[in-house]
Description:
Blueprint: E1 7-8, E2 14-15, E3 24-26, H1 29-32, E4 51-53, E5 59-69, E6 74-82, E7 91-96, E8 100-103, E9 108-111, H2 115-119, H3 135-144
Parallel strand pairs: 3-8, 4-9
Antiparallel strand pairs: 1-2, 4-5, 5-6, 6-7, 8-9
Amino acid sequence: MVQATPTTTATGADDLKGSANGARITGASHLDNRSGPGPEVMAASDFEGEDVVNAQGETLGDIQEIMIDVRSGRIAYAVLAAGGFLGLGEKYLAIPWRALTLDTDRKCFILDIDKERLKNAPGFDQDHWPSMADERWATDIHSFYQAAPYWQ
């Protein structure tokens, strides 16, 4: 089950900032150094290859792509490569951006989902991507991860 994870603000208070509109940010390390980009504004390419773990600390895979809804300018999905070995047999998963938490201390994303449930998640292979603009497909994906659709 995907749950909102509080973030720590500069004042030390817990905050759900981003939970309604994007990925959450957690960790104190982003408060220490405010020079340069990140973590509030970052290049999409910075996320490619980043690990995704669950709340139990188990590695789920790594980010392959960031998908942007061009018309709205919003990040729609992170494409997670899960399973496989050296790129062979990998299952790709469209993870709603709102379902992720960027952990600046551990330098990874957290997806609060059990590894067994993720194995049953709707996915695709690198040669057969779904039509991510299909509203029915998108609604089903957001429902699976219990994340509010990015277009709402």
